[in-house]
């Protein structure tokens, strides 16, 4: 029997169910918290954070799929330093592919109308897999036998099973994905429903399972982009995948729970369980709120200033891995000021050094050479940066650093 779009209903929980749930309030809380975080960051500071968080997002999204390549291994691969073991090297390249697709989506600046189109979803899958080693295109069964191979940017062409769930027939996918995009199109939703629809769509795309492989990564990349396009402007400075990875068992369990058929007359009016969808959306909102709150706490100005000062002190106690030179204490004020504004004018930086000009210029040169500040030209302002050796001090517990 062909799968109808009605087999995915409800698309979002009904108004009557939402009125008895915390979901609308949590959706608005998420919007408020994200806006407040965006308001406390200078644009250049946020841009630096988003570049840095691309590695973190790649690490956590791939970790959910079983690729445990650590952030320092991803950064090593960015420098061309790959692991000698071919399997681990391929996983490094997979992580870089995820980062490249994040950057490709960022450059596209897609609006919600663009995101919920079958051709765009296919293109995200294509952009990821053309960058992934072909050894990772192979699909094997539990016994290690080759059963299929990924075709980048193509719907799956065979039947699959995901746990207890049997996704729709392959021949139904083109029409089903068109109907999926139409039913989750942003024109159908306003206010808090727009955010709720993004969270619900995350599950419904997983339920369809349109690709033979890569559904989780593509789904999370689309959800990332949709939250940004929906107006959560600080998204990118925080990422949902970190929270999903830290509660991966619950994430997968709730995805599976929302796959269930409707459980009687008190469970909505669609083919699938409304209660399961509510639980899944509640989890996704809680996870997002937790992550934006966590990053807001990390970026609280007094606390960040203390961590920058601790970093400088650790430099002088020779406790920072990767650098050996001590650092003048006044560097902390320069780095903190650069964080607040995203950059610092050279004359202002020299003034803050509070030392003879030659010594001040030597300090600024050191900060640049060690990646703590950057420049676009010899006369440009100096931009705040997050080098690998400072990351554990600036952002403890953000990710594993070794």
Draw up the topology in text.
Elements: H1 15-19, H2 23-39, H3 43-64, H4 71-78, H5 86-108, H6 112-115, H7 118-129, E1 138-140, E2 146-149, H8 173-183, H9 192-208, H10 215-229, H11 240-246, H12 248-257, H13 274-298, H14 301-316, H15 331-341, E3 343-344, H16 346-353, H17 357-369, E4 373-374, E5 382-384, H18 391-394
What does this protein structure show overall?
A three-stranded antiparallel sheet has the order 3-5-4. The longest helix has 25 residues. It has 402 residues and is mainly α. It contains 18 helices and five strands. The model has no long low-confidence stretch (mean pLDDT 95). Helix content is 57%, strand content 3%. It folds into two domains: 276 residues, Orthogonal Bundle (Fic-like fold), CATH 1.10.3290.10; 94 residues, no CATH class.
Just name the CATH architecture of the largest domain. Orthogonal Bundle
- Uncertain runs with pLDDT below 50, 5 residues or more? none
Number of strands: 5
Integer average pLDDT = 95
Distance between the termini: 51 Å
Count of individual helical segments: 18
Offer a few descriptive terms.
402 residues; mainly alpha; Fic-like fold; three-stranded antiparallel beta sheet; two-stranded antiparallel sheet; 18 helices; globular
């Amino acid at each position: 029997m062909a799968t109808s779009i009605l087999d995915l209903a409800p698309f979002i929980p009904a108004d009557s169910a939402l009125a008895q749930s915390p979901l609308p309030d949590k959706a608005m809380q998420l919007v408020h918290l994200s806006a407040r975080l965006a308001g406390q960051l200078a644009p250049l500071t946020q841009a630096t954070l988003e570049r840095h968080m691309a590695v973190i997002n790649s690490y956590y999204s791939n970790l959910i799929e079983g690729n445990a390549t650590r952030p320092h291994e991803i950064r090593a691969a960015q420098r061309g330093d790959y692991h000698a073991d071919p399997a681990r090297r391929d996983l490094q390249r997979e992580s870089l592919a995820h980062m490249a697709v994040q950057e490709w989506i960022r450059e596209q600046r897609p609006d919600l109308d663009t995101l919920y189109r079958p051709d765009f979803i296919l293109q995200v899958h294509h952009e990821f897999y053309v960058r992934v080693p072909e050894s990772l295109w192979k699909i094997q069964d539990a016994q290690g036998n080759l059963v299929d191979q990924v075709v980048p940017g193509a719907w799956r062409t065979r039947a699959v099973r995901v746990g207890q769930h049997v996704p729709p027939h392959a021949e139904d996918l083109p029409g089903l994905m068109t109907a999926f995009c139409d039913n989750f199109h942003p024109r159908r939703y306003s206010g808090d429903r727009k955010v709720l629809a993004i969270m619900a769509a995350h599950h419904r795309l997983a339920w369809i399972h349109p690709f033979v492989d890569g559904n989780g990564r593509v789904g999370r990349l689309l959800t990332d982009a949709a939250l940004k396009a929906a107006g959560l402007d600080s998204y990118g400075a925080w990422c949902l995948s970190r929270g999903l990875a830290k509660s991966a068992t619950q994430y997968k369990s709730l995805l599976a729970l929302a796959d269930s058929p409707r459980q009687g007359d008190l469970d909505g009016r669609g083919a699938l369980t409304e209660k399961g969808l509510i639980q899944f959306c509640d989890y996704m909102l809680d996870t997002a709120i937790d992550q934006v709150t966590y990053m807001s706490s990390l970026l609280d100005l007094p606390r960040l200033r203390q961590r920058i000062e601790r970093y400088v002190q650790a430099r002088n106690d020779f406790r920072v891995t990767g650098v050996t030179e001590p650092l003048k204490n006044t560097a902390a004020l320069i780095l903190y000021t650069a964080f607040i504004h995203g950059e610092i004018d050279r004359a202002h930086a020299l003034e803050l050094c509070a030392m003879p000009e030659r010594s001040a210029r030597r300090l600024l040169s050191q900060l640049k050479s060690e990646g703590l500040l950057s420049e676009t030209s010899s006369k440009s302002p100096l931009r705040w940066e997050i080098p690998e050796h400072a990351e554990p001090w600036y952002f403890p517990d953000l990710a594993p650093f070794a």
